[in-house]
Specification:
The complex is a heterodimer of chains A (451) and B (127).
Chain A (H helix, E strand, L loop, with lengths): L6 H9 L10 E9 L5 E6 L3 E3 L4 E6 L2 E10 L4 E6 L12 E6 L1 H8 L7 E3 L22 E21 L4 E21 L4 E22 L4 E24 L7 E21 L2 E3 L4 E15 L3 E17 L2 E18 L3 E15 L4 E16 L3 E16 L2 E16 L4 E17 L2 E18 L1
Antiparallel strand pairs in A: 1-2, 1-7, 2-6, 3-8, 4-5, 4-7, 5-6, 9-10, 9-23, 10-11, 11-12, 12-13, 13-14, 13-15, 15-16, 16-17, 17-18, 18-19, 19-20, 20-21, 21-22, 22-23
Chain B lengths: L1 H23 L7 E4 L31 H11 L6 H5 L8 H13 L13 H4 L1
Classes of the chains: A mainly beta (451), B mainly alpha (127).
């Protein structure tokens, strides 16, 4: 039984035309497992295949025929088939099996199990194996998808502060931690129309602290600051996908609407003095577009966020009006046991008010390998994100490097876990501030389930 | 079971590697330092901290006052809005509407400017 997270999607999928259409299609796949009695087999289905749990199938093997029924189909396209008679002993694991779906059985089953149908398109990927980025590419099969991921990040390091009007020479202790949750619920039907929503939530805090001696006054002060930050992203989207049949080119388009909210609170202490301003809040909204083209062996995805607009607000200060744009390109290849993805996203943001002008530019490079180990996937990743901010005469550059491995198990309600190292490098300087260099690194663990 | 064992070994190696990196490469700062002079006021955050007032340099240039406060004071003094800044001067506290109303009250109480200050400026005067 393949669970469908939202009843509405279940009802819609039953109503969609084409689900109950019986077909006699040749299906091929690699034999992965055979039971002792050779009556239950596990087959890695190849290419674009329409098969439902309960479908009857007929195998033609070396002049002999075997009939059976599909017991279950995993998310990555492994079908468990129970045969009425044992598989010939000459057939070995690794052999390619050819079978046809029996029309009569399919029709009877399809009438009451439409939601269990699976149309495999091995090109389009699954969030459990990759992560983030695209709402189109995660719909690798027709039907509903949902997943949720929780992550914990902790970093420690040092911030060196030097120069400035006070003549700083301080090495601060730097620590950072955050918890985050993200997930998605979506549906794309057989005609290729659908939609869903993606959400992200991050709750984090950063602290720096040091004991600082002041030469002119011969005092020692505890100097510290703390920044708490909550970020919420919410992106509803509509999608159209024309999935590729074997050897064909497929394409898709998606339109989303990003709603981003950031609430932050900053506090600084220097001896007995404090700087404890009002909280700041940033809201940004705007469209996001995605286009995808690909086959069963590759896909190219472009993302365009032409104008995300918003305001950075803080009581007592003029709002900073912000407009940001993003342009991203991703390329994926799909081999039988090895898949790969590289992506590059460019980012720009301009913020203006009566008292400040802020310009951001940056990029994010991401790369993934997906090594299919049959019952689970190993997905090593390397991401590099760079952000440069000019703020009047001040300038800051920030680079975050994440490297690690994701493990994703196959099947329904498949769990996945990511383990990685995150490295922060930052430099800031300007007329009204000392030069600050920050280097920190830490550990990130994430896990979740894909339904 | 074999796959789970393999996965377990991978997780274990990843955690060992991460622990090594945490302990070696990402050494925490010593939390000490010196400076020649103490700052006149506590410095705000840095260029990456959200909030217009949390950025270096910006705190020395606060917004003069918000539009509503400016209208209240213009009605209070019976002067054009453009002249409010000349009367009140640059003052961070003047950004608050309460502060503007309190200022009107005090000026009216001392018969400021020959009693032209209107301490009972109604909301309709602001519109």
């Amino acid at each position: 039984m393949r669970p469908v997270p939202i009843a509405f999607f279940f009802i819609v999928s039953i109503a969609l035309p084409g689900f109950a259409t019986a077909q006699t299609t040749e299906i091929s796949g690699e034999l992965l497992r055979v039971s002792k009695k050779r009556t239950v087999i596990l087959v890695d289905l190849a290419g674009d295949t329409e098969l439902a749990e309960g479908d009857g199938v007929r195998l033609a093997i070396e002049g002999k025929t075997r009939s059976g029924a599909v017991r279950s189909i995993s998310d990555n396209g492994n079908a468990m088939v129970r045969l009425t008679k044992g598989l010939p002993s000459t057939v070995k694991v690794g052999d390619t099996l050819k079978m046809t779906k029996e029309a009569a059985a399919a029709t009877a089953e399809a009438s009451n199990s439409a939601a269990k149908s699976v149309r495999l398109v091995k090109g389009f990927r699954n969030k459990a194996y990759w992560d983030d980025v695209s709402y189109l590419a995660t719909h690798r099969r027709a039907g509903a998808r949902s997943d949720i991921e929780l992550a914990y990040l902790t970093k420690q390091g040092a911030r060196e502060s030097s120069g400035g009007t006070q003549g700083d020479d301080v090495e601060y202790e730097y620590s950072e931690k955050s918890i985050s949750a993200n997930g998605a619920v979506g549906y794309v039907g057989r005609p290729g129309l659908g939609g869903g929503v993606i959400f992200d939530y991050v709750k984090g805090e950063r602290e720096i602290a040091a004991s600082v001696d002041t030469e002119s006054t011969v005092t020692t002060d505890q100097v510290a600051d703390k920044l708490e930050r909550n970020v919420t992203n919410f992106t509803p989207y509509f999608a159209f996908l024309n999935r590729p049949k074997t050897g064909d080119i497929g394409f898709g388009a998606g339109l989303g609407f990003l709603v981003r909210s950031t609430a932050s609170e900053y506090m600084a202490r220097d001896g007995d003095d404090s700087f404890d301003p009002e909280p700041a809040k940033t809201t940004q909204i705007g469209p996001t577009l995605e286009l995808i083209i690909g086959s069963n062996s590759w896909a190219a995805i472009s993302q365009i966020n032409p104008g995300i607009k918003g305001k950075e607000k803080q009581t007592g200060f003029a709002d900073i009006e912000r407009t940001s744009s993003e342009f991203g390109l991703h390329f994926e290849t799909y081999g039988q046991a090895l898949k790969a993805r590289v992506g590059l996203v460019f980012y720009s943001d301009k913020g203006e008010s009566d008292i400040v002008e802020q310009k951001d530019t940056g990029f994010k490079f991401s790369s993934r390998l997906d090594i299919d180990m049959r019952s689970y996937h190993i997905v090593p990743f390397l991401d590099v994100a760079n952000l440069t901010r000019k703020l009047d005469e001040a300038k800051g550059t920030q680079t975050v490097t994440d490297v690690g491995t994701r493990l994703a198990w196959s099947g329904v309600l498949a769990p996945f876990v990511s383990l990685g190292v995150s490295i922060l490098n930052e430099k800031q300087s300007g007329d009204r501030m000392p030069t600050q260099k920050t280097a920190a690194g830490g550990f990130k663990i994430a896990g979740g389930v894909s339904i | 079971m074999m796959h789970w064992n393999t996965a377990g070994r991978i997780v274990f190696v990843c955690m060992l590697t991460s622990t090594f990196l945490l302990g070696g490469c990402f050494k925490k700062g010593d939390g000490k330092g010196s400076r020649k002079t103490k700052p006149k006021s506590v410095a705000p955050g840095d260029v990456f901290v959200p909030g217009p007032g949390n950025k270096p340099g910006v705190v020395t240039k606060p917004e003069f006052m918000n539009e509503t406060a400016r209208k209240i004071l213009a009605a209070c003094f019976n002067i054009p809005e453009e002249e409010v800044q000349d009367v009140v001067g640059w003052n961070n506290a003047a950004t608050a509407i309460d502060a503007a109303n309190a200022l009107c009250d005090r000026l009216a109480a001392v018969n400021f400017n020959g009693g032209t200050v209107n301490a009972t400026a109604a909301q309709s005067d602001v519109q």
